[in-house]
Design brief:
Elements (H helix, E strand, L loop, with lengths): L5 H4 L5 E3 L3 E7 L8 E7 L4 E5 L4 E8 L1 E6 L5 E5 L3 E4 L4 E6 L3 E8 L20
Antiparallel strand pairs: 1-2, 2-3, 3-10, 4-9, 5-8, 5-10, 6-7, 6-9
């Protein structure tokens, strides 16, 4: 059994910071669950361009408001607490945080915790 609290991860190697976000990683590849689970904050007023070409991701917004733009088809979606989206087709997308967004994110394959967004906005596949 794995039990972790958010406060126990803050300031550790499971608390990963990017330019527009920070992600607290509850489950990583090394935990052996077959997916990774993140509590991610996107900072108010930021625009984050992403393309998870090596992963599928499901995202559940639990706080804040923003806009999701699917760069593959031009559609936009309002994001607010209670909204879920799944990038089941490796869609290129932009997430604009009109207020601070707090998201619960699940990645498959799971991330190792060492990934950072590359120039495409993607995480590389890292083998441990």
């Amino acid at each position: 059994m794995i039990v972790r609290s958010l406060e126990s991860m803050v300031g550790t190697d499971r608390d990963v910071h990017g330019e527009t976000w920070n992600s607290r990683r509850f489950l990583l590849k090394g935990d052996g669950m077959g997916f990774s689970l993140h509590d991610t904050i996107l900072h108010e007023g930021t625009v984050t361009r992403m393309w998870y070409k090596n992963h599928v991701e499901a995202v559940y917004c639990i706080e804040g408001e923003g806009k999701l733009e699917d760069l593959d088809n031009g559609e936009t979606y309002e994001i607010k607490a209670g909204t879920m989206y799944a990038l089941n087709g490796n869609e290129r997308h932009i997430l604009t945080a009109t207020s601070t967004l707090r998201m619960v994110c699940v990645f498959n394959p799971p991330v190792t915790g060492k990934e950072v967004h590359d120039e495409d906005g993607a995480y590389p596949l890292i083998e441990e």
